[in-house]
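Extended Data, panel c. Modelled sequence:
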Amino acid sequence: MLYLAIQMSKKIKILVIGGAGYVGSAACAWLRDQGHYVWVLDDLSTGHREHVLSEGFTLAKAGDQKAVSALLGSQSFDCAMHFAASCLVSESVKNPQKYFENNVIQTKNLLETLLECGVKNFIFSSTCAIFGTPQFDSNDKTQKINESLPKKPINPYGETKLQVEDMLASYAKTHGLKSVALRYFNASGAEPKNRVGECHIVETHLIPNILKAAMKNQKVEIYGDDYSTHDGTCIRDYIHVTDLAQTHESAMLKLLQDKSPIGRFFAYNLGSENGFSVKEVLCAAEKVIGKKISSVIKERRPGDPPRLVSDSALAKKELSFSPKYVKIEQIIESAWKWEQQNVTSKKAVFLDRDGTLNEDPGYLSHPDQMILLPTVGESLAKLKKAGFLLIVLSNQSGVGRGIVKESMLPSIHNKLHEHLKSYGVKLDDFFLCFHTPEDNCECRKPKTKNILKAAKTYNICLKKSYMIGDKLSDIQMGLAAGCRAALLVRTGDGKKTEKELVSKQVPFIGDSLLAVAEWILHQENADS
């Protein structure tokens, strides 16, 4: 297609909503590799801040009209790509209202803001679930799903995605919106450079669950073996996440080359056009890994159709869609490399220093005057025993102002270690900022540069990690970095900070560091 060959005269600027998630982060990786300018907006409810690959980041929900409007007031974008949604079929059956709010209302608010700010090119992450259980013509031997089949979703997830597609078609007529809905089949695999891949706190997708089970010598759970398929298990079409990412760029270029003054809406099915049963995927994984993987049959999950395989002819014709990962073994191999890399990932507790670990300054010029707060040593010992790295984050603006010399800091750190030695614990590292507030750096509170730097240095998974502090900036930093939780301790400025908190910013406030540490350990026990 001509539009794919045209080189844009300027760098294309793309707002990626949900760019911290699985497919969204893979799309960002691809787009940046092609030389585009990418900005991510994500609320980090399920995404990972350390997986964000972009020039800029905004922490907000897709439908936060104030935040999106402010961003669009400071940045101009040629196109928006929307990946943010709740996407678990079984959860949607149990909690349909959540899916209507997150997938429909949030998208409606987003679209209204984009249109008000002049962004009229929109790529939507949709799903084959809008087709429900397709009813094929008796003469159709392929039983592949093309765009013309009736759309009859059988679960709230598919219903909410169809509602958004209908909204896009309507906005094309009423608001001049140009949009493309890309209906994924089963997004799978990991980005080739292993920068991003599937990483969910609660994993429901088949391939990563097979691989995780193999690594832990556990059984794979197969939900139903009495479907009307050749081996009784569900058949799905698996499409590599990078093939999806590339097609988002193709869809964007199609819209940007369309000079028509009227709105347009296009929809394409994206799959490999190959169907594999659960048992066949399990067998393929055994070949890739080179070991037998045990399985156990469970009851069917509600809302699961027996067979979903794509007919992607239209995308091939109009978007030059040409998947590179056509074999299920290729997809599994890329996912296996990602899982092997992630198995070494660590968890951490990030700690403010003054007011959380020790009494506030007064000791900087005389480290011997440093005094640990009550329960600190015992608390850190418990967290260390539970496998957490202990990372101290601190702003040393006195260094930037010339009040304190940087050469004095090792003696301060040594004094901390001396206090903690009797508890058998040592802090793993210090990540410090030496800027003043006037410098407007990327690491001074409440910005996240040092948390992200620590995560990269030690291969820390932030979704398994926590931030603890006594100041509002500590809480904001932990939330913005995508930690599992940011927690407040009432020592230092904690009692004053408690009055400044917005509802639900923190799930727990402790009178001491020990109370907070025990809350964290309770979460760990609940997970296991």
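Residues 1-7 have pLDDT under 50 and may be disordered. This feature is highlighted in the accompanying rendering.
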